[in-house]
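Dig into what follows:

_____
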Amino acid sequence: MSSLHDHNVCAHKDLTSSPSGYAEQVGYVRPSAEQRARAAGLKRGQQVAEGSFPAPLVLPNDDLDLDPKWPPQNVRSWVRGKERNEVTDDRRTLYIAPPPRIDSEVKHMQSWSIPCRASDDDSKTRISSPNAHDVAQYLQAFFCGMQVNLLEPSVVPLNFMRWQDDKRRSKKRKRSDEVPSIALANATEAVRIRSRRCPDGAFLQQLNLNDLLDAVISNLPADAYSLLMLMEQDMYEEEDDDYCCGRAYGGSRCAVVSMARYNPTTLASNISTLTFSHLWPASHCADNVNGLVIEALSEKGGKGKRQLRDDRQTSHGGKTLTLVDLTSSSPPPAEPASTTPQFESAMVEAVRRWAANPNTTQESRWLSHICRTASHELGHCFGIDHCVYYACNMQGTSSIAEDRRQPPYLCPVDAEKVKRAIAGKEKENGRWQTDQYQALLRFCKDRMDKDEGDLWAGLAGWLESRLKECREDL
């Protein structure tokens, strides 16, 4: 058991609920509070508990920095989506496929999931990758009301094997370092999977994501709403990509998630610039957000220190930063109606619980990463596009660092989409939402009973606060 974030790095005294000062410069315009409420399908006069749902941060090199004009998808446009698949009585199961087994002919693949820059100590104490059963349990809670099953190898035996055509031309191979071609096979067919050397040297080889998705589609069970396959190897999508952690063919109801880049050994190496002290929920620490913006602008040579100091005061479109003092033992004072709403209890409680429960295992941290990414990719199978309204599980990501700053919960807009997909529109009293919160809370407490804190403790605090807010709204 080890503490994976250092409380001495930052006290996380203040949180911000607004986009960073960088957001306005790159052209990101957040929909108004009224537009956000309408986007979530709320009736006129109803409001979102904005204090519990902060805005996207939009930091340098984030997804919304690269594409700040990404079109928002409200509930109405989601309902009208032509490629969206309805949940039916015959298709109400989410299948999770464990990583395929590796045949002896391609046993060299076993080394592809081991980070190349692992230290001798890392090699001696290899961390076990997340268990597919644990991921399935989380997804059962996240998509409350759906059935989540493992795709048992005894039913659909997925395994990597040597591509048959490759055997016939092996004698013609000129390069001694050329890797034999592989295939992903079930009991009746095999799909060739391309591979290449890892461009940044993080792993020996990568597998082609598009080929893997083709293989997943061919194994979709008849009663499946969707199928997600977990991978231990690193992946790439296009030739100019460095790597890809996950992707979904939403219309085809298939997804693949690689666990390789979330390996704590990889994250701790110099491949990743991830700082463990500002993962969610501490990602909205105002000092860190401002510091990242200042650092990025300084590297670009755009501003002097004096100008940057002024930005810290008016970096949110002229609005005062929304701050909460986490070092105070008393609750924050009520915000006057004329100013920007303060954080209410959910985010504050999430950070307090996270900071108070720093100890966790490396395996638990790894599992939390995979659970969040798997729920995101399956969200695409429900027809949900990337979110631009709030910091949300359905936000797009352009890096591991951004990925880890984003929350594991759904914002009100995307939660309404999942609710309607699973429970139908008639449940307007919010019962599905409270059922989901309670199911996720049970999962978090089960992990915490195993002495795993960190994200699970933060999410538990957020969920308990949100359940109180939901009861107050009834």
Observations:
- The longest strand covers residues 224-231.
